[in-house]
Amino acid sequence: MEPRDGAPRNGGAPGDAERSPGYSERSEHGDGTRQGNGRAARTLVRLCAEPPAWSFGDLYLRRYHAADHGTVLELHREGLAQVGLRPGDGVYYDHDFFRMEDIYLRNDGEFIVGELNGRIVAMGGLRRADLVPAGHARVRGGYVMGGPPLDAVEMVRLRVRPAVQRRGYGAAVVEALEQRAAEYGYRILRADTTELQGPALQLYRRFGWTVTRRETIGGIVNVYLQKPLT
C-alpha cells in the first residue's frame, strides 16, 4: 500500500522537513493558533508531506528515526508504569520497539514523535493490523511481514510524558496519525488500551472511536476500539 502522493518513505531528522506551502494549514495568525471566543486555540499544522511533519503550538511532530530509539522506549515504559502496567502482567510488551523500521516504517505504517524544545515528549504509531497478534498472544510477539495490503491499521504506542500531559499533545498525535492512515489508503482504524488508561479511552472517544469488545487478560480489562475512515 503506497502513500497517495507516491512519495518515498525515507526516515528523516527534523531539519529534513521543508515547510511546504501546499501542505500548510496555518491560521491567519501564522503561528498554529486560531482565535475563537476570545481565546487562542492551538491547531495542528501540516508542515511537510514527506517525511511528514506538523506543528501544534510549541510541539513539533516528525517521523521517528533510529537515533530516537532509547528515548521512545523509555517514554513507553514510563507511560505504562504510570498506570501500573508492568512486564509479566500479560498486557505489557515492548518487542516491537526493537524492530521499528520493519514493523512501522517499511511495512505500510508510520511512527511519529513530538518534540518540545528539542526533547521528545510524545509519540504514537500506525502498524498493519496483522503484524502483531491480539489478545493473550500479543505479549509473545510474532510477525508476518510482507503480506497483502489490508484495509485496517492499528494506532498504537500513544504516549505523552507525564510532566506535559493535559496540553493537547496526545490529541495532536492522534490527529496526525489519522491523517497518515487516510493518506496510505486504510479504511479502518483499530486500537486497544486498558481500563486503567482512562485518559486514553476518553481521547479515542473524543475522536469518534467506538468500543467493539472487552477482554480480561491477567486480571486487566483490555478495551478494543475502532473507527472507520470512509
Any descriptors?
alpha+beta; 4 helices; two-stranded antiparallel sheet; 230 residues; nine-stranded mixed sheet
Set down the secondary structure blueprint.
Blueprint: E1 33-36, E2 39-42, E3 44-48, E4 53-56, E5 59-63, H1 69-82, H2 100-105, E6 110-116, E7 119-128, E8 152-160, H3 169-183, E9 188-194, H4 198-206, E10 210-217, E11 220-228
Parallel strand pairs: 8-9
Antiparallel strand pairs: 1-2, 3-4, 4-5, 5-6, 6-7, 7-8, 9-11, 10-11
Q: Would you mind describing this structure in some detail?
A:
This protein is α+β, with helices and mostly antiparallel strands and 230 residues long. It contains 4 helices and 11 strands, in the order E-E-E-E-E-H-H-E-E-E-H-E-H-E-E. The protein has a 9-stranded mixed beta sheet, with helices on both faces. Strand 3 and strand 4 form a beta hairpin. The radius of gyration is 17 Å and the shape is globular. It starts with 32 loop residues before the first strand and ends with a strand. The N terminus is likely disordered.
